[in-house]
Amino acid sequence: MTDDTLFKRLTAERDVLSVSQLNARARSLLEDVFPQIWVEGELSNLAKPSSGHLYFSLKDSKAQIRCAFFRQHASRVRMDMRDGLQVRVRGRVSLYEGRGDYQLIVDSMESAGDGALRQAFDALKAKLADEGLFATQRKRPLPAHPKRIGVITSPSGAAVRDIISVFGRRAPFIELVIVPTPVQGREAAPLIVKALQQADRAGFDALIVARGGGSLEDLWPFNEEMVARALAACQTPTISAVGHETDVSISDFVADVRAPTPSAAAELLSPDQQAMLQQVERAHRHLHQRMRERLAREQLRLDSLRRRLRHPGERLAQQAQRLDDFELRLKRALRQQLTLLGQRHERLLARLQAQHPGKHLALLRQRLDQFDQRLPRAMTLSMQQRRQRLDNLGQTLHLVSPLATLGRGYSILLDQQGRALRSHADAKPGQRVEARLADGRLALRVEDDLDQPHTLPLLD
């Protein structure tokens, strides 16, 4: 429902409202139309009761509005609130019904320029991250035992006093050199860059870039791109200690190490003097122990070498004795060698005599005589065996010979070429054949083939 509709309805019905009803309807209307808005103005009439709530007016050159900032939201604001501060607040428009006061219920507050600065901060952070300026690989380690450290800060700020105090307590032997530079304001960024470049060329072991806490606007020089690139270009290891522990700047991401406070940066680079003395004492005791152990080992080695060391005459006597021993061993070896050679000569001579040609010829002559005696007997026996076998074979041949068949009254017919006639078809009438008998041969002529049909003449 719009405000015009509401007021027309009330006018038409001519309702008579109580003050409470009017304020309640006005509050509802305001909260419906303005549920959440941003308003920028100057703080005034700031009140801080013990409840923790904050009450103030927000004004410009022509008007003002009362504001209530309740404790649960006000406790999250880190800025130093004071009259005259230009701020930007977020809240809802409402009405305090008890007094009929039109007011703004605030739930967030920032410095007037903080929103734009925050956007610029996020944009630069993303840009430098894409370029790799925040990469862990490019971070350099801090020196373990620095001797000379440069501190880039305001010489009148609390940060330099905190750093000097920590070094004086923990490591007074380290030389601190203050490189003065403004750390706040529009002109601070180029001067910080110049101080970084001078300190980087001065040969320090490490650099501390420091300042105390403040609003985002106060810390802005350390969010400038030129300062970030100057830090990235430093060859000297750097520590960024800008603001309090909850403050974060672009310099913190670019520097090699980020310290939550200037005092913490000093502690990172200042080894504890007492701890170092204790470490030196332990090293001193350890060195003495090692020296005593080394001396004891060398003494044992010296004693061993002394026992092994002998007079040259004694060594010569030992060598002479060894020479005599070698001479005796050589003589024994020669005698043994001669004995072995004599025994081998005798064995070879015996073998040579055993292989003499006369003995071999005698054996061959004896074998020849034996063969000469065995040969006639073997020949006679072989002839008898062969004659007996020949008789047996002759008898066997006679049994299967055609002559034996002829002797039983049979004959063999042969043609003119001497081939045997085995069938009546092999002979033709008028053919001359020969009949072979057991005691001779007959010449015959074939008159007729009796197996052929024959017709007798009827008139005969």
From TrEMBL:
CDD domains (UniProt xref): ExoVII_LU_OBF (cd04489)
**What EC class does the entry list?**
hydrolase
A Pfam family that this protein carries is Exonuc_VII_L
Keywords from UniProt, A to Z, are: Coiled coil, Cytoplasm, Exonuclease, Hydrolase, Nuclease
Q: Name one GO molecular function term.
A: exodeoxyribonuclease VII activity
Reactions catalysed: Exonucleolytic cleavage in either 5'- to 3'- or 3'- to 5'-direction to yield nucleoside 5'-phosphates
Where along the sequence do coiled-coil regions lie? 288-336
Q: What EC number(s) does the entry state?
A: 3.1.11.6
The protein's location, in the record's own words, is:
Cytoplasm
Name of protein: Exodeoxyribonuclease 7 large subunit
Q: Which organism is it from?
A: Halopseudomonas laoshanensis
Lineage runs: Bacteria, Pseudomonadati, Pseudomonadota, Gammaproteobacteria, Pseudomonadales
